[in-house]
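This part of the workshop introduces the protein records we will be handling. Backbone structure tokens are a discrete shorthand for how the chain folds in space. Once this layout is familiar, the rest of the handout is easier to follow. The record below serves as our worked example for the rest of this section.
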Amino acid sequence: MSETHLTDVAFAGFGLAPELMQGIEDAGFSKCTPIQAETLPLTLEHKDVAGQAQTGTGKTAAFALPMLDHLLRERGRGPRALILAPTRELAT
């Protein structure tokens, strides 16, 4: 994604689990896209959000990062996350 599609909001400012933050940095990301910048503060506070954005704008990371952060911090027994996919292609 080109730099022109990124915000000034840094992933480092969200207080994500260190292992998760390391993965984000290793993948070469530092700044959020608009959908991520708007939704991550809410989802990291365990609030529900609904968002719409074009393909390739980081929607998957917008919902997956808070879930992964929770899974890393709250190690427990039993199901801890449920992921629904509308199509087999998206699930793959």
Notes: The chain is about 40% helix and 0% strand. The mean pLDDT is 90. Residues 19 and 60 are 18 Å apart (CA to CA). The longest helix spans residues 59-73.
